[in-house]
Design a protein that fits this description.
Distance between the termini: 30 Å
Order of helices and strands: EHEHEHEEHEHEHEHEHEHEEEHHEEH
Strand order of the largest sheet: 3-2-1-4-5-6-14-15
Structural class: alpha/beta
Number of strands: 15
Largest sheet: 8 strands, mixed
Radius of gyration: 21 Å
Helix content: 25-40%
Strand content: 15-25%
Number of domains: 2
CATH superfamily of the largest domain: NAD(P)-binding Rossmann-like Domain
CATH architecture of the largest domain: 3-Layer(aba) Sandwich
CATH topology of the largest domain: Rossmann fold
Shape: globular
CATH class of the largest domain: Alpha Beta
Length: about 375
């Protein structure tokens, strides 16, 4: 199979969908691999690194002319013309919050497989997990930075010092993002509260974090009360394939102290904070009601040297299977690929995505 790896053109995206190690595995199995010139530079991979393992270097057209196209982020308008009906696209899509992309994929008839809805036998999301780990850790780093007074924050050090209370971090959600955020925040010696409706998961966190966090059942009232006293709030809520539920209202944000910070990691799925809107690494923050908002939609893109191999480690087994067997056979041998198919034959194929887009005018 011909496999193409275009350069990412979304603003401030430095990852690449395939490492040289992954390219070698494909070439070794007899596949033809095309990588766009310079596509790996943001992740510290040169064209020579890919040529050395047998890949070919070309332009965007060469890569998109492949049967299987590997990307990191959803195609943007400038790439819609490359979409075809005899093509499999494997990437993060987040279509519930991307009507235009969903429409373009349907019009083109492209078969689009979304990393974020592929499941393993236990119903977990193995291709989303590594980026969720990174995003959870980065959320605390970003929050700590923008709490500093020169960056518009209150001037709070999350860990405090002896004789001065630590900063208060509230994390909404106890999945992979929330857990990693809690690990980093407790490591910085902040006062950490995690809100969740998954009592079993909270019991696990109690064991993992050794009682160093406050664990609360999530309701509108507990969220509002926790946020009113928080220095940093991290939204970490996920419904696979669907829009993130709006759990934080503007009134809750307005009740926070001026200079406090919110980080909405769910923003690529529409956001769980009412005042959230997507931002970029180049222009990452804005202020609403005196509260600093950090809502970068591709947070792991800021650490591509770490994120690219992490993504490749997770996706490569699926890439190899699809390249060897074709998508239909691969879905039969691994049923967890089936929910990953978001668009096929000009229609939305994932039920959660279809429900999220219900009422939107798609071709």
């Amino acid at each position: 199979m011909r496999v193409g790896v275009p350069a990412e053109v979304k603003p401030d995206e430095y990852r690449i969908a395939l490492t040289p190690a992954g390219a070698l595995e494909l070439v070794h199995r007899g596949h033809e691999v095309w990588v766009e010139q310079g596509a790996g530079l943001g992740a510290s991979f040169t064209d020579e690194d890919y040529v050395r393992v047998g890949a070919r270097i070309g332009d965007a057209g060469d890569c998109w002319a492949s049967e299987l196209v590997l990307k990191v982020k959803e195609p943007i308008a400038a790439e819609f013309g490359f979409l075809r009906d005899d093509q499999i696209l494997l990437t993060y899509l987040h279509l519930a919050a991307n009507h235009g992309v969903a429409a373009a994929l349907c019009r083109a008839g492209t078969t689009a497989v979304a990393y974020e809805t592929v499941e393993d036998p236990q119903g977990r999301l193995p291709l989303l997990a590594p980026m969720s780990e990174l995003a959870g850790r980065l959320a605390v780093q970003a929050g700590a930075r923008y709490l500093e007074r020169p960056h518009g924050g209150r001037g709070v050090l999350l860990g405090g010092i002896p004789g001065v209370a630590p900063g208060r971090v509230v994390i909404i959600g106890s999945g992979i993002v929330g857990t990693n955020a809690a690990v980093v925040a407790t490591g910085m010696q902040a006062h950490v509260t995690v809100l969740s409706r998954n009592v079993g998961r909270m019991r696990e966190l109690e064991m993992v974090l050794g009682g160093r966090v406050t664990l609360l059942y999530s309701t509108r009232l507990t969220i509002a009360e926790a946020m009113a006293d928080a220095d940093l709030v991290i939204g970490a809520v996920l419904l696979p394939g669907a829009r993130a539920p709006r759990l934080v209202t503007r009134e809750m944000v307005a009740a926070m102290r001026p200079g406090s910070v919110v980080v909405d990691v769910s923003v690529d799925q529409g956001g769980c904070i009412e005042t959230a809107r997507p931002t970029t690494h180049s222009d990452p923050v804005y202020t609403v009601d005196g509260v600093v908002h950090y809502c970068v939609a591709n947070m792991p893109g800021g650490v591509p040297v770490t994120a690219t191999p992490a993504l490749g480690n997770a996706t490569l087994p699926y890439v190899l299977r699809i390249a060897a067997e074709g998508l239909s056979a691969a879905m039969r041998s691994d049923p967890g690929l089936r929910p990953g198919v978001n668009v096929r034959d000009g229609k939305i194929a994932n039920a959660a995505v279809a429900a999220a887009l219900d009422g939107d005018q798609l071709p």
